[in-house]
């Protein structure tokens, strides 16, 4: 997945980062967070507008914030209910499961 400059800029605004010297690093960190959350919760579109996409984007930003601040080991404990809720929301609907069987 390509990390857009808009996503990087949105994260930088949230973190009050006003320089561009870390943009490449922030892209990498955002990419890692998207990948980790997709692995844990399921597929989402970080640039999407659905409720699950917006919730996933929030978690991506939070995980990236923890990663940026070298505190990743605290992320899962602090956001476990949000991660679980997102994962349950991203489960396929029963009708979708029946259609693929």
Search tags:
101 residues, mainly alpha, globular
Can you describe what's shown?
The chain is 69% helix and 0% strand. It is built from five helices and no strands.
Give a brief description:
The protein is mainly α and about 100 residues long. The protein has five helices and no strands.
Order of helices and strands: HHHHH
* Fraction in beta strands: under 5%
> Helical element count?
5
The value of Rg in angstroms is 15 Å
- Shape assignment: globular
Q: Estimate percent helicity.
A: 55-70%
Q: In this structure, how is the largest beta sheet organized?
A: none
Set out the fold topology.
Layout: H1 5-15, H2 23-41, H3 51-68, H4 75-89, H5 94-100
